[in-house]
Design brief:
Blueprint: E1 6-11, H1 18-33, E2 37-41, H2 47-58, H3 64-88, E3 92-96, H4 99-109, H5 114-124, E4 132-137, H6 140-146, H7 159-175, E5 180-184, H8 189-200, H9 205-212
Helix pairs in contact: 1-8, 2-3, 3-5, 4-5, 4-7
Function: Phosphorylation of dTMP to form dTDP in both de novo and salvage pathways of dTTP synthesis.
GO cellular component, one term: cytosol
Pfam families: Thymidylate_kin (PF02223)
C-alpha cells in the first residue's frame, strides 16, 4: 500500500457472514485504534453503487460479460469516490467484497477467463489491492441453509456455480498467502469474529495489544 490507511476486504460465498463480520471488525478496530473506520460493500457502497446493485442482483438476466462490466463500473466508482480518499486520509477501510469476488464469481462461477476478469478489475481500481483479504470459507450447502428471503440472481445460480466459486476463492487464497487468510465460517458469529481478530491483529500494529489482552 502507498497510502497511510489500511485496507481489509472480506470475501466468500453468499451466506458466509461477510456483512456481519465486516461490521464487527470495523467496530472492534475503531474502538481499539481510535482511527477512523469506514465499513462499506460492493456493489452498493455509494449512491450510484446502490443503483447498480439493484440492476445486477435483482434486475433482468444478463450475459456474463455484461455482469462483469457492471461490477467493474461499480468498483471503479467505489474506489475513486470512497475507498481511496478514505485510505489517503489514514482511515481503515473494511469492505464486504472487492475485486476477488469478480474473479471468483465471473471467472470461476460464470467460467469467463480468469486473467481477463482480473485485468478488468485491476484496471478499474488502478491496481489497488487490499492489505489483507479474509476469506470466510463455508460449504455451499451450509451457506444456502443460512439464507432467508428471496434469492438474488447469483444466489439462485445453482449448486455447480457455487461449488466453482468456492474452488476459485480457495485457489486464489492458496497462491497469495501474504494477502489472504482463510477463516472457517461454519462456527458461531462470536467464534468466527475471534478468528478474524486473530488474523488481523498481527498485521495491524495498533491492534496487537488489544488482541493479546482479549479486547
Amino acid at each position: 500500500m502507498s497510502t497511510p490507511g489500511y485496507f481489509v476486504s472480506f470475501e466468500g460465498g453468499d451466506g458466509g457472514g461477510k456483512t456481519t463480520q465486516a461490521r464487527l471488525l470495523g467496530d472492534w478496530l475503531g474502538t481499539l485504534t481510535g482511527r477512523e473506520v469506514v465499513v462499506t460493500r460492493e456493489p452498493g457502497g455509494t449512491a450510484l453503487g446502490a443503483e447498480l446493485r439493484q440492476v445486477i442482483l435483482h434486475g433482468q438476466d444478463m450475459d456474463p460479460r455484461t455482469e462483469a462490466l457492471l461490477y467493474a463500473a461499480d468498483r471503479a466508482h467505489h474506489v475513486a469516490s470512497l475507498v481511496r480518499p478514505a485510505l489517503e486520509r489514514g482511515a481503515v477501510v473494511v469492505t464486504d467484497r472487492y475485486l476477488d469476488s469478480s474473479v471468483a464469481y465471473q471467472a470461476g462461477g460464470r467460467e469467463l477467463g480468469e486473467a481477463e476478469v482480473e485485468r478488468l478489475s485491476l484496471w478499474a481500481v488502478q491496481g489497488l489491492l487490499p492489505d489483507l483479504t479474509i476469506l470466510l470459507d463455508v460449504d455451499p450447502a451450509t451457506s444456502a441453509a443460512r439464507m432467508t428471503g428471496d434469492p438474488d440472481r447469483l444466489e439462485r445460480a445453482g449448486d455447480d456455480f457455487h461449488r466453482r466459486t468456492r474452488e476459485a476463492y480457495l485457489s486464489r487464497a492458496g497462491t497469495d498467502p501474504a494477502r489472504w487468510v482463510v477463516v472457517d465460517a461454519a462456527g458461531t458469529v462470536d467464534q468466527v469474529h475471534a478468528q478474524v481478530r486473530a488474523a488481523v491483529a498481527p498485521r495491524l500494529p495498533q491492534a496487537r495489544s488489544g488482541a493479546a489482552d482479549g479486547r
